[in-house]
Design goal:
single chain; alpha/beta; Aspartate Aminotransferase, domain 2; seven-stranded mixed beta sheet; 35% helix; globular; binds 4'-deoxy-4'-aminopyridoxal-5'-phosphate
Length: 357
């Protein structure tokens, strides 16, 4: 039976990426050596990093004032690296809290300076996105999470910010057309829309740096990575290669605009079924729902386990909701084919026909 992977990350990638990555582990481009044995400073690997950076530029249209880096430590490491580099002890940064990931980013920033949480939806377990706040003009930066992977909410419009805008885009990067120039910094753990775990994409304006008074350890200083073009120390060469392959695939699909169209259609289908089906209920406010991580609950909790098992038995893998939310979550990233969503919808309908009163 064909299996469809709805895990939130590491997550589904295009089949061609798996094939090419597997091949390169045996031998990279007929060079007689494996991808994972060559030096990160070899001309072959340098070309891979440069192609990945070039593809990011091509897809976003961002100019040379933005630096493109592949770092380690995941998006989680960025939670502390950002304030370490950009927030002095007596300064304030603005954040919005709309789920587990923004909450974690806030916790880390508090270790370095003052944090002004402008708005939060913690009161309703992050089932909506807080609105109606204003961003203070004296904040050092404003941090947003464009898509909350666990709670299934997504910012539908990117706020205009009077101060540098920094976005955790781990779970929705390159899934929709954005005005990329609105951001001063974007970061994303690779293991959802970009590739496999072990690399973190950072896109940033260099002008954000060099302003804090504290000394920053070399490895945590963005300037080291900029200076050495993501090769300051040994990076995860395999993870960067998989990012490059996924970015090539995205370009070959026509880029971000057609991807957004498909993503909207896939998410639309799934939310429509959740609304229609008598057993299920969406748990995020309609206007804030994520196109990437679709979450829902069952009216009758006693059926949850058997629905989870039924989905699994029918090839829909990884739909159990995060323990902090319960219910179900289907992660339908760029690489999820239309037929995967269609399969999940048919599984939901079949389960309903067996169990609805
Ligand atoms: N931010 C978001 C929105 C995420 O979804 C995740 C991972 N699920 C993280 C941060 C943390 O990423 P990592 O595991 O790469 O540190």
């Amino acid at each position: 039976m064909k299996k469809f992977n709805f895990y939130s990350g590491p997550a589904i990638l295009p089949p061609t990426v798996f094939e090419q990555a597997a091949k390169a582990v045996l031998e990279l481009d007929n060079i007689g050596l494996s991808l994972i044995e060559i030096s990160h400073r070899s001309k072959e690997f340098t070309a891979i990093v440069e192609e990945a950076q070039q593809l990011v530029r091509e897809l976003t249209g961002l100019g040379d004032d933005y630096k493109i880096l592949f770092m380690q430590g995941g998006a989680t490491m960025q939670f502390c690296t950002i304030p370490y580099n950009m927030l002095d002890t007596n300064e304030t940064a603005a954040y919005i809290e709309m789920g587990s990931w923004s909450k974690k980013a806030i916790k880390e920033a508090k270790l370095f300076g003052n944090v002004n949480v402008l708005a939060s939806s913690a009161d309703k377990n992050f089932s909506y996105i807080p609105k109606g706040y204003s961003i203070p003009a004296d904040a050092k930066y404003f941090h947003i999470t464009t898509n909350e992977t666990i709670h299934g909410n997504q910012l539908q419009t990117i706020p205009d910010s009077p101060v540098p805008l920094i976005a955790d885009m781990s779970s929705d990067i390159f899934s929709r057309v954005l005005d990329w120039n609105k951001f001063d910094m974007i970061y994303a753990g690779a293991q959802k829309n970009l590739g496999t775990s072990g690399a973190t994409l950072v896109i940033m304006k260099e002008s954000l740096l060099g302003k804090v008074k504290r000394p920053v350890p070399t490895m945590l200083d963005y300037r080291s990575h900029i200076k050495d073009n993501s090769l300051h120390n040994t990076p995860s060469t395999f993870a960067i290669y998989v990012c490059m392959l996924t970015l090539r695939w995205l370009r070959d699909q026509g880029g971000i605009a057609p991807m957004e169209k498909r993503n909207r259609a896939k998410a639309g289908l799934l939310y429509a079924e959740i609304e229609r089906n008598t057993l299920f209920e969406a748990n995020v406010a309609a206007e804030d729902r994520s196109m990437m991580n679709v979450t829902w609950i069952m009216h009758d909790k006693s059926l949850e386990e058997s629905f989870g098992q039924f989905a699994k038995d029918n090839g829909c893998i990884g739909i159990k909701g995060h323990r902090s939310v319960g219910g179900f979550r289907a992660s339908i990233y760029n690489a999820m084919p239309d037929e995967g969503v269609a399969k999940l919808v048919s599984v939901m309908q079949e389960f309903e026909s067996k169990h609805a009163q």
